[in-house]
Specification:
heterodimer, A: alpha/beta, five-stranded parallel beta sheet, B: alpha/beta, two-stranded antiparallel ribbon, 16 helices, 10 strands, globular, disordered C terminus
């Protein structure tokens, strides 16, 4: 069970960030790490090649408010399928989940791609080239919403 | 963290053989025999299918060589892809990620190498490329592109000490072929991606010295193009100058400067992607690179790889004999890069207390060598790079990378001036995607 943000020692919401699966493309995650830190988030960076379980265990261990998943090498569908179910299994069913990057292989249009990832249980999914500002704005809103509902964060 | 430090100094051949038998051959069943099979394979190669000949001839003719890679999991697809690159005008045809070299084994490589009219190369970013390089050389590969820092950027957990030591093995193996009359060109691949020029140059110089230490005699020092032609051309000039000073005071090394195509994010639109490829070829041509490693125009498909090679070949030919004129701007950029690279090299030498292999690994752990976008957990991960308002890559935060104070100030000012963008957009400008750009397509392209 997570403490409300305002009760935290430094008052900063905490997020877990990493590159999922066997992916080593870290540029986007590093950019996000910088932007999130600048925006006042406490970022726990797991780096490259992070499994679903590692994301979730880190979130439990550090009592995080959200998990941000980066996927760039095209295997996002394989690596992200069942992510929310896994969170439920580990007892953090209501944690905020965001995903972004080159999520699929080939020239699939974003309107085809986005619903798949929402279906895996992500609160939001982002196409390549999305400014970090957009994700941060969404994250702020989603965390406020969770707080208002009395849940995690 | 405890780690066994690699030590500098040339390995005796007995050590090469001992490690080969006890570790490398034990990694995976292979049809590798003794070295003599590889030597015979090299003997059988046509004159123009040897990398050192092609490099020497290119230099004599004043033309730039083109290296292109392709990876396919089927032997037929792999050969067809490399033949398409040869047809497109590439000089060195590399087996790249996607070709399972170890499981295709020596026979698979030999079939490809003997079917090509130009040299077969290997391009690999593994933290332990020892067996892959063994298989490649035994099959007739004469050009090996690998790099300690490229491996470090792409491997989550491997220690810097193990990566340095595995590269010592690869270099000692290449030297063994050389000593027996079978020249192999070793490319010190550019550390990737998005590394500021002063650090990029310092890293390849360090690794080239480690390779030379093992007896490697033919080196391509590769610089990863960043996109601003003035900055890139200045970096290529400084690289050549410092490499000659550092490595070749006595002329004992056959030294080449390489330029590697931008390896970060590229636009979704195919036409725009040609712009990135052409921009790279212009910087390589005007900066005086001896060889350019091309990237596919788009996805890793064979046709895209061939288009990238053909476009690059054409542009480099058009630029023959042309160089960027010396200007105040170019001079300032070169001076900044040279002094900062020197400071980094000095700090690594200090860290190793005279042992460069040990110093390199220690400098990674101490954050002296910190890649802005490296994935390895042993990197400090503090350094940050951004594009300034002119599109040049600057240090937003050098972290522990010891650049001189005035360079630090200049970088900070340039980063702050980056068109006065808010911090997040400043960072996004590190890509070839303009700030605020939000493409419709779901499947972008990454190399």
């Amino acid at each position: 069970v997570s403490a409300p943000v305002e009760d935290r020692v430094d008052g900063k919401p905490k997020v877990i960030l990493g590159v999922v699966g066997a992916d080593v493309h870290i540029v986007g995650a590093r950019v996000l790490e910088y932007a999130l830190t600048e925006a006042g988030y406490d970022v726990v960076s797991l780096g490259i090649m992070v499994s679903q379980e590692e994301f979730i265990e880190a979130a439990i261990e550090s009592n995080a408010d959200a998990i941000l998943v980066s996927s760039v090498y095209g295997h996002g569908e394989i690596d992200c399928r069942g992510f929310r179910d896994k969170c439920v299994e580990y007892g953090i069913a209501d944690i905020v989940l965001l995903v972004g990057g080159n999520l699929v292989v080939g020239k699939q249009s974003w309107p085809e791609v986005e619903p798949k990832f929402l279906d895996y249980g992500f609160d939001r999914a982002y196409p390549p080239g999305t400014s970090p500002d957009i994700a941060i704005k969404d994250l702020n809103e989603l965390l406020a919403e969770r707080r208002a509902l009395g849940g995690r964060a | 963290v405890s780690a066994q430090s690699p030590a500098a100094g040339r390995w005796p051949v007995e050590r090469l053989i001992e490690v080969r038998d006890s570790q490398v051959l034990a990694q995976h069943a292979s049809d590798l025999g003794g070295f003599e099979h590889g030597f015979a394979q090299h003997d059988a190669l046509d004159h123009l299918a040897r990398a050192h000949t092609v490099m020497e001839r290119s230099r004599e003719l004043g033309r730039r060589a083109v290296e292109a890679g392709y990876g396919d999991d089927s032997p037929d697809g792999q050969l067809a892809g490399l033949k398409a690159l040869e047809q497109a005008g590439a000089d060195i045809l590399s087996l790249a990620a996607g070709y399972p070299i170890v499981s295709q084994d020596v026979a698979g490589v030999a079939e490809i190498a003997t079917a090509l009219g130009r040299p077969c190369g290997l391009r690999i970013a593994s933290s332990d490329a020892r067996l892959a390089v063994e298989v490649a050389l035994a099959g007739g590969v004469t050009y090996v592109a690998t790099s300690v820092f490229r491996a470090l950027a792409h491997d989550d957990a491997a220690t810097p000490e193990s990566i340095v030591e595995h590269h010592q093995y690869v270099d000692r193996l290449i030297a063994h072929f050389e000593e027996h009359g079978h020249p192999v060109v070793r490319e010190v691949a550019a550390p990737g991606p998005v590394v500021p020029p002063c650090l990029a140059i310092a890293l390849v110089l360090l690794e080239a010295r480690l390779a030379a230490d093992q007896g490697v005699r033919r080196l391509v020092l590769s610089y990863g193009l960043l996109g601003n032609v003035v900055q890139d051309a200045a970096a290529l000039q400084v690289l050549r100058e410092m490499a000659t000073e550092e490595l070749n005071a006595d002329g004992g090394i056959d030294l080449y400067v390489g330029a590697a195509e931008w390896s970060g994010q590229v636009p979704d639109d195919e036409g725009a992607r040609y712009g990135v490829v052409l921009n790279g070829a212009i910087a390589a041509g005007l900066g005086g690179a001896d060889i350019m490693s091309t990237a596919p125009v788009g996805t890793a498909r064979s046709a895209d790889a061939a288009a990238g090679a053909q476009t690059t070949r054409q542009l480099l030919d058009l630029l023959t004999g042309q160089q960027l004129e010396t200007s105040d701007e170019l001079g300032r950029e070169a001076d900044l890069t040279r002094r900062s690279a020197r400071a980094i090299l000095d700090a690594v030498a200090d860290a190793g207390d005279g042992d460069l292999a040990r110093g390199t690994a220690l400098a990674v752990r101490r954050g002296i060598l910190d890649l802005p976008f490296g994935g390895n957990r042993h990197l400090a991960g503090v350094a940050r790079a951004v594009r300034d308002g002119d599109g040049r890559l600057r240090w937003l935060e050098p972290g522990g990378v010891p650049i001189p104070a005035d360079a630090r100030d200049l970088h900070a000012a340039a980063a702050a001036n980056a068109a006065e963008l808010p911090p997040t957009e400043l960072v996004s400008a590190g890509f070839f995607v303009p700030p605020g750009h939000s493409p419709e397509a779901g499947g972008g392209v990454t190399t």
